[in-house]
Amino acid sequence: MELIFMARSAGVLLSITSLPSPYGIGTIGKEARKFADFLKKSGQTIWQILPVGPTSYGDSPYQSFSTYAGNPYLIDLDTLCEEGLLTKEEVMSRDWGSDDAEVDYEKIYNNRFEVLKIAYDNFKKGDQKAFTSFKRKNSSWLKNYALYMAVKKSFDMVSWTEWPDEEIKMRDEAAVKRYERKLKDDVDFWKFVQFKFYEQWESFRAYVNGLGIKILGDMPIYVAMDSADTWANPKLFQLDEENLPVAVAGCPPDAFSATGQLWGNPLYAWDYHKKTGYDWWMKRVACCFKLYDIIRIDHFRGFDEYYAIPYGDETAENGEWMPGPGMDLFLKMKETLGDLPIIAEDLGFLTDTVRQLLKDSGYPGMKVLEFAFVAGEDSDYLPHNYDKNCVVYTGTHDNDTLQGWYQTLSEEDKEMTKEYLNNPYTPDEEVHWDFISLAMRSVADTCIIPVQDYLGLGNKARINMPSTLGGNWMWRMKKGAFTDELIKKIRKTTEVCAKIKHNKETKRKHNIQTKDSLRREWKRFGYCCFSFCFVYAKTSDFS
Fold it and tell me: Which candidate, 475, 497, 541, 493, places its Cα nearest to that of 19?
């Protein structure tokens, strides 16, 4: 089955946190709309973002406190000021960091929630109807998340597995009711934060969609151990009688990591999910489509086989591959939710069974140019090996920038890229445009380019280094980075490579102008012919 859901199109990858902002981190406010305007002007129809859940230790968007909740950092403070919930003085008096090229998460954490608490206290004085309605509609996840965050805050934000009160840790019914009463105002605060996030998100998404742009969002395959999902739903995961993991997720050793990748996420109890008709997954995916127009499922291989590492191991070396749900899950999704616009992250080492699962699902996979150029190898990532139903990237959030990557290539690999690109005279500082054009020209229906590559930035602009802690997810784009000249260049490249059709209105105006010009030229030509004939007749002897 082939499920091609997008016409030939192009887009840009940029985390919302990387947008410019006077408050230390990008938000879904004015600058987000400005970036959407840039996408429109440059002919892009997709904006790919990273997960937007509340981040935990390490600030990774792939380790969230909730699979349903939105990140409080993304709430636009200027909008809260316009609503009268904050004053400019209350916002600007805080230290949001002095470097507009990086997010200072410590300062954001120390200030953001205090400011949001002021907004909440002011909000309580006004109309509560919309808030009450939001709480009712989202109670299935909001109640657990808000209580989890309130209790977690009361225990200095340690993981729920370390909470000193065993009863609330194990979700004893009486303990849950006791903490709901004890922390009532704090619980309501966390509900308010989600109310404002979703309210602003709906407005942001409507603006983006109104420009003809789709939001492509990431759905991590796993949830964090320290999350409301795990605490509230232990049956969904491979946990023991003390609600500790039996095994955790990761990847085995490979060429990039001698000890593998130890992610630490709890693994799913797939037998239980099957018995419940994958109910949790159906709700999770449905919620994702309330946020995004297209979703990319991270680590697609994990649905065929997942790598289980014994809990407590310090490396991923002793793990083993276990069978996942396979097509059973995706057939249930189709039955319950219909045909969905989903991209499968199928990167890394793939087995024949993973390839078959991708084919059977019909989802487009991913091709990354930075993986393609190894001298002497005919890589699947080279464009001549693509089919239409895939998404091509120059790189992803886990890769170096094009410029950073290119500068580290061996001379042999660099020579191969020049031969493949057939442009040996391109200066190194401009070579990213050759790769962008190559991705655009490919047969792949969809092309996504990270913002850093359009800007030609080096490795200092890299946003994440897998298997490292600290220094990630911090990069921010400088205000005014996209000049009119760059916008025109991006649009021209996109049009020439047929990732977008020429704007119909522009073509119509051009045709009208062309016709008018021709009419003028014919008139001018006719006048010249008449003048010539008149002069010739006056000066010639016809007798």
Answer: 475
Contact between residue 63 and residue 56 where contact means Cβ atoms under 8 Å apart: yes
Question: Phi and psi of 176, rounded to 5°?
Answer: -60, -50
Q: Do 51 and 178 contact (CB within 8 A), yes or no? A: no
Q: The whole model's pTM is what?
A: 0.91
- Give the three-state DSSP class for 315: coil
What is the pLDDT at residue 6? Answer: 61
DSSP secondary structure letter of residue 117? H
CB environment 69-102: b (16+ within 10 A), e (fewer): bbbbbbbbbbbbbeeebbeeebbeebebbeeeeb
pLDDT at 501: 66
Question: Burial level of 117, CB count in 10 A (0-12/13-18/19+)?
Answer: middle
Cα atoms in the 13 Å half-sphere on the side-chain side of 107:
14
Report the catalytic residues.
Answer: 298, 345, 398
φ/ψ of residue 401, rounded to 5: -65, 160
**Average pLDDT for residues 426-447, to the nearest whole number?**
96
Q: Where are the beta strands (DSSP E) in 42-86?
A: 46-48
State how far the Cα of 119 lies from the Cα of 113, in Å rounded to an integer.
10
**Exposure on the CB side of residue 453, measured as CA atoms within 13 A:** 30
The set of residues, in sequence order, having a beta carbon less than 8 Å from that of 333 and lying 6+ positions away, is 278, 281, 282, 285, 340
Confidence of residue 7 (pLDDT cuts 50, 70, 90): confident
The residues spanned by each domain of the chain are: 9-501, 502-543
**Do residues 444 and 392 make contact, with C-beta atoms less than 8 angstroms apart?**
yes
The residues that bridge with 452 in the sheet, in sequence order, are none
Cα torsion 268, 271, 274, 275 to 10°: value is -120
* Structure-block tokens of residue 442: 């490919």
Residue with tokens 């023991």: 240
How distant is the alpha carbon of residue 444 from its chain centre? Answer: 19
Question: Domain 9-501 is in which class?
Answer: alpha beta
